[in-house]
Amino acid sequence: MFLLILSIVCAERVILITRHGHRSPKTFTEVDEKYIWTIPAETLTHTGFNQFLNVGSKYKFLPIYDASGNCIYEKIGFQGGTTQRVLMSNVAFFTNLCPKNYVSMLHKLFQEYYTQFSTKQSSLDEILKSDFKDPFQLNFKHFSRDNDFLFHGHNTDTCPNLKAIKKAQRNSFYYQVTSSKLLTGTAFDEVFKLYQAAYPSKKLDPKAITIDDLNEFYDDYLSNSGEGYSFPDPSPAAVKLLEDAYRLEKFYVDNTQVLSHYSSLSEPFRWFIQQLQSKEPLSFYSGHGSNQEAMFAVLIEDQLLAPYATRLEIVITDVVNFKLNDQLLKTKVCSKGENCTIQETINFLSKYVVSDLYQQCGLKTE
Question: Which of 83, 129, 125 is nearest to 104 (CA)?
């Protein structure tokens, strides 16, 4: 009897927060277009699909199956982004999580969750008829969510009042000094040579390069190297410079001010609070690196980056812990940094949940 009671008390639940799998670059360089990429920009690759097959395999220990080994749809909470790279990652995840009934699980997911975001009925119909044997033949590009504070609250299109905040951050003394340092020196000279090589038809001026240019090039490097392509191939010092430029934009500009936190975190955290109090063994929030980085900005001291297929977990037993790719995180959620109570976790997340987000962002109320 004691063992039975202990197993019930300590039964594990997981809120899984992911970045989609590996994709093509946001913007193609001339070299990309001529020699490397044959798929559209920001498209999930086979590498990214395989990453999420692996992610799906990691949660088979949870009690989400019936006696025949079929996944039970009602035991999995879900919130997912609407981009192709996220949707394809979801397909891979459920394919391996639910090997016996992934087709019916995916049909139900698209019928009950994604139908409301469909912008092209014929594409949705093809998905709902599919057996998902070759998901790369399906069109996942016709889904969109209006006022998407669940996954795109950091965008000025979603929250217009962020424009003034981002402008002020970029005009600040700290940003100007830090960006000037990043745009000079030996590491920058190397990055500029690679950047020039990526656009051989253009004569570029190193003084005209911006932090945005560095971030675009960093994205290109991550996409190309993750797919095994050898260009560009920056040295460790050059990679560090690109990472520092990315952190300057993603943390200092995007995730420092109060409204930035509210806009990016209010709706995700609202759902996490709901799931902390639910009985679903698995809750799956399937999004983007920007979502995870906005969470890192308030959860921990370090400005961690989120590679493709990064897994942030809220693990709930009799206590709550946060894990990043299976490694325990020390967080600000409670004074101990780990083994927080559910109430402490709810209290912390609640600090970033507001009821007047539309007004604060300068939008008309719903």
Answer: 129
**Distance between CA 237 and CA 244 in Å, rounded?**
11
Percent of the chain with pLDDT over 70: 97
CB count within 10 Å of CB 289 equals 18
Q: Kindly state the tokens that stand for 53.
A: 């097959």
Q: Tell which phi-psi region holds residue 334, choosing left (phi > 0), alpha (psi between -120 and 50) or beta.
A: beta
Write down the residue that tokens 């992911």 correspond to.
18
Distance CA 138, CA 157 (A): 28
With tokens 């044959």, the residue in question is 38
Residue range 109-142, pLDDT digits in tens: 999 999 999 999 999 999 999 999 999 999 999 9
Q: Whole-model pTM?
A: 0.95
Q: Are 182 and 241 in contact (CB under 8 A)?
A: yes
Strand-pairing partners, residue 13, are: 316
pLDDT confidence of residue 235 = 97
Question: What is the amino acid identity at position 256?
Answer: T
